[in-house]
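We modelled the chain as a single entity of 155 amino acids. Its sequence is:
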Amino acid sequence: MKAWMKRWTALQSHSSDLSVVPSGSPDKDRQWILDRLVAFNESKAGPSGFRPYVILLQEEAGKRTLGGLAGMSFYDWFYVELVFVPEHVRHAGWGTQLLSQAEAEAVRRNCVGIWLDTYGFQARRFYERRGYEVFGALDDHPRGSQRCFMRKMLG
């Protein structure tokens, strides 16, 4: 019997004891999966250097938080996960300030580039005006729109 056939047969006999079930604790189980994936990735690519980053847009009086940016750096890239500027203060430069500070932090962290994703109804043109380019897109996400994946190389 060929080697691959022996391995396949061994895997099939072992996996007959397995099943796929929905989680009863999604947050806890997601973390369990993430911990193992990170361990695997680091065993192949070395430490990721993961570091979170959050900056807030706050009112001067009362320090009430109105918006902000959340991201992280890992494996020499900076990922902008979330950006929110409330509608009543949009187009006043706050999004630019948040993004500029994140880019400056990515440079301080010696990142190769910065990437993010945005929906077609969100801020694609805003990011393009700031030097970001689309490197991938997912059509009909949500239906009738597009999710764009964008990057900016840092010098």
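As a brief sanity check on the tokenised model: The helical segments are 3-15, 26-45, 94-108, 124-129. The longest strand covers residues 65-74.
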